[in-house]
Amino acid sequence: MIQTIKKAWGIPELRKKIVFTALILLIFRIGNAIPVPWVDTKLLSDYLSSMSTTVLGLYDVMSGGAFAQATVFALGVQPYINSSIIIQLLTIAIPALERLAREGGEEGKKKIQSITRYATVAIAILQGWGYYALMKSANILTDTGFWPALVIIVSFIAGSSFVMWMGEQITEFGIGNGISIILFAGILSRVPSMVSSMSISLRSGAMQWWHAVLVVIGILALIVLITWVNGAERRIPVQYAKRQVGRKMYGGQASTLPMKVNMSGVLPIIFAQSIAMIIPTVAAFLPAPEKGTFAYSLVNAVDSKSVLYMIIYFLMIIAFSYFYATIQFNPIEISNNLKKNGGFIPGFRPGKPTADFIKKVLNKVTLFGAIYLGVVAILPLLIGKIVNVAALSIGGTSVIIVVGVALETVQALESQMLMRQYKGFLE
Prior knowledge:
- By secondary structure, the protein is mostly helical.
- It has two domains: about 1-190, SecY subunit domain (Preprotein translocase SecY subunit), CATH 1.10.3370.10; about 230-390, SecY subunit domain (Preprotein translocase SecY subunit), CATH 1.10.3370.10.
- The protein has 19 helices and five strands.
- The strands form two sheets. A three-stranded antiparallel β-sheet has the order 4-1-5. Strands 2-3 form a two-stranded antiparallel sheet.
- α2 packs antiparallel against α9 and α9 (about 145-175) crosses α10.
- The radius of gyration is 24 Å and the shape is globular.
- It starts with a helix and ends in a 9-residue tail after the last helix.
């Protein structure tokens, strides 16, 4: 692997791409260290540390700790991710956008990308204002006048827009998907602080040594599982009919229809987690309910350590996995495309029988992928319940994002090297 990296570095084009990606990530990390004015970061950090199991804790993890420090990049890539998901859903719901995505070609992709950018700015405006209102209500701001409010909100919006631009630059001129790599860098930057916090807990006696061993083993097990499932796919054999054009014979070759086990990626976990955290998030802003009341029972029932929370969380992950699988993989459309190109699945007639078979296989594959995502999400919760560390409730999401992006980036570098006839990482 070291020799492969050396060979990649020896290729001028790849070296430029790697250096460019590294410089963009350096700028991202610098921006994460620049706080906006009129914010008491110590009070903010203490305030958000008590909400590690809420949506705010999830935002902090995704931003690489910038959210808890109110830096110019505090919103990170969240507005862009939310915008992309919304536009993706609207593309299915609105026929005009669907036609633009299917038939618009390269120009259609550019228009959808432009719409996504505008939506990102709109979401950043809402989130920036909401973040300011949160800090104002918690008395974290040193000045609450009009000018400080304008500067803080505009800084958040500009920072989020700049992060989006940097992600697009990495995609175009660097290695891999830019937004994913920025998200990867943000999450990975928290590893030293997590290790330091665990070390302090061990020395103070708050955490037993076997607790730390269990956490490390759990993380390693997750990495192995994610790596194994990430490349897993179900391949359906496809045969193409022979046809003669003039004196030449075309077709007749065999191919496969790949179907990834984890087709929807980490999106079902993020969506399920966001919805499951609604009640704990709301409860965090309200006075603590008295024992014996319905509100007290409800808050305890949906706490991230409760069994009911884990069951609901698991079921929502399965539901969202099926939802995204149906969005990304349409059996009827696949069947029609095969029929148009003279392809067929051996043993099944073209048209509805083929679509029914693909749908049957898709349901089985999606079920396995959904259970896998559920296990990845629930395992950190179980370990956190055992070792009494609530912050592990979002650990599964972080691990799957980091490992998935790392594998994706390695594959992107591998494809670049294979184009130049070099042996790569996967050999």
